[in-house]
């Protein structure tokens, strides 16, 4: 099955759509972290060393199996010379 077909099936189930929308911020964080690490040409191990953690911790974070604290995300931002921006927006946007 191709992604396009799977997406159509997923869209038909309102419970699945609701859960995907709820998880969207987590997916965005993961995508941003992957982009940031690759932009800096860092391996998971190299990023882990910069923030004083293990490669497996970075791998869990990137796979979505770990819900990072803001403090942990700040360590990553600091190590990559970035800042974090957080904002609340209306659900109707």
Describe the protein's architecture and organization:
It contains 5 helices and no strands. Helix 3 crosses helix 4. The radius of gyration is 16 Å and the shape is globular. The two termini are 32 Å apart. The longest helix has 26 residues. With 93 residues, the chain is mainly α. The protein has a single domain, classed as 434 Repressor (Amino-terminal Domain) (Orthogonal Bundle).
Low-confidence stretches: none
Rg value: 16 Å
CATH topology: 434 Repressor (Amino-terminal Domain)
Supply the CATH class. Mainly Alpha
* Shape designation: globular
Number of domains: 1
CATH architecture: Orthogonal Bundle
Structural topology:
Elements: H1 3-11, H2 14-39, H3 44-50, H4 55-63, H5 70-79
Give a summary of the structure in a few sentences.
The chain is an all-alpha fold and 93 residues long. It has one domain: 434 Repressor (Amino-terminal Domain), CATH 1.10.260.40.
List keywords for this structure.
mainly alpha, globular, 434 Repressor (Amino-terminal Domain)
């Amino acid at each position: 099955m191709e992604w396009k077909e799977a997406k159509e099936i997923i869209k038909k189930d309102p419970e699945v759509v609701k859960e995907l929308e709820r998880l969207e911020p987590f997916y965005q964080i993961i995508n941003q972290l992957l982009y940031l690490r690759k932009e800096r040409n860092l391996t998971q191990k190299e990023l882990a060393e910069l923030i004083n953690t293990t490669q497996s911790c970075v791998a869990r974070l990137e796979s979505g199996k770990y819900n990072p604290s803001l403090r942990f995300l700040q360590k990553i931002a600091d190590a990559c010379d970035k800042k974090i921006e957080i904002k609340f927006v209306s659900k109707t946007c």
